[in-house]
Amino acid sequence: MLVGGTGCMGGGLLLLAAAATASPNLWFVQASLVVIGAGLGLNTAPVNAVAVAAVGPARSGTASGLINTTRMVGATMGIAVLGAIYASHAGGGMQDGMLSGLRLAYVGGAAAELTGAAIALLFTRRDSMVLKTG
Predict the structure, then answer these.
(1) Which among 84, 49, 93, 85 has a CA at the least distance from the CA of 67?
(2) Are 47 and 6 in contact (CB under 8 A)?
């Protein structure tokens, strides 16, 4: 689910990039957001489970707190970087520049998500969600 969820988020962002036109189809935009939301739902619990299962019971609270803090820092940094990419293209306020910046930001976010999915696929063991005891 970890790889699938992250892949869904990346795929949804690519769909949003395709929808970034002068007159977007709002149903397509909503469907893209549903794909992203489904990916987020599929991703959140497995990430926490892998983090908590990777340490002993005495450190499970620390692992859970660290993964949630990392998620918030990552989201904040991602928004800052992608917002800067958008702003660098949309600076003049012209519609074409704004759409170009929006598409580039969506594709950048998708690249980050799909890279994360590939890393998860390569480095997450099948038994990584088995809780350690002792």
Answers:
(1) 49
(2) no
